[in-house]
Amino acid sequence: MAEYSVAVPTRGSPADAGTVSGSPVVPVKSLLVCGILSSLLYAGMNIFIPLAWDGYNSASRVVSELSAIGAPTRSLWVPFGFVWAVLVAAFGLGVWMSAERNRPLRVVGLVLLAYGLFNFVPWPPMHQREVLAAGGATLTDTLHLVWSFVAVSFMMVAMAFGAAAFGKRFRLYSITTIVILMTLGVLTGRDAPRIQANLPTPLVGVWERISIGVFLLWVVVLALAVWRRPGVKA
C-alpha cells in the first residue's frame, strides 16, 4: 500500500502546504468546498429532519429540541450532525492551509477547525419541554447550555478575526453578521424560561434559525473569499 505524507510548508508559502514530492497534493480547494457543503447540510437538516416529527413547529421550537432526549428526530439529527462537524473541521483546515502570511485568517482556520472537532462528539442533550416543566432537568440540560455558549463563542471569535482578515467590505459584512447574531441571540434567550416551563414560544425558532442562517451564510462567503486568494492550490 502506498504511503501518503504531507510536506511541511515553507515559511513564505503556507498556501503550498499541500505540495509534496512524489505524493498526492492535498486538495485545499476541496477542503474549502467543505465549508459550503457544511452550510448546505445544516440548512437541509433544519428543513427536512423536522418533517419526521409530527407536531414539531420550526417557528416555535428551538433546534436543540430536534436532538432532545426522547425526541423522535434524535436518531436522525445525531449522525447528520457528525457529518456536519467533519465538514466544518475540514473547512477550517483548508482555511488555515490557505492563509499564507495572513495571521487573522490563520486564526480563523484554527478556530473553525477547533469548532468542528468540538462538535465531533454529540452535545449533552436537553430534555423535552414537558420533562423540564415537570422538574425533570438533569446535569445534561445544564451541560447543553454550556456547550451552546462554547459553540457561539467559537462562531463569534471566527467572525471577529475574519473581519480583520480581508478588506473593508468583508469587514463590514462580518461585523453586521455579528450584530445580527447577537441581537437575535438575546431574543432567543428571552424565551428560555418559557421553554423550561413549557409555555408558548411562538417565534423562538424564527429568531434562532435566522441567527444560525446568517452564520451559515458567512461561512459560504468566507469560503468564496478564501477560494479567490492568489496561490490557493486546487
Outline type: elongated
DSSP summary, beta strand count: 0
Number of domains: 1
Please give the radius of gyration in angstroms. Answer: 19 Å
Mean pLDDT across the residues is 90
The share of residues in helices is: 55-70%
The CA-CA distance between the termini, in Å, is 25 Å
Notable features of this structure?
234 residues, mainly alpha, 0% strand, disordered N terminus
Task: Characterise this structure.
- By secondary structure, the protein is mainly α.
- Helices cover 61% and strands 0% of the residues.
- Helix 1 (28-48) runs antiparallel to helix 2 (74-97) and helix 1 (28-48) runs antiparallel to helix 8 (204-227).
What's the SSE blueprint?
Blueprint: H1 28-48, H2 74-97, H3 103-118, H4 129-133, H5 139-163, H6 168-190, H7 192-196, H8 204-227
Helix pairs in contact: 1-2, 1-8, 2-3, 3-5, 5-6, 6-8
Brief overview:
The chain has 234 residues and is mostly helical.
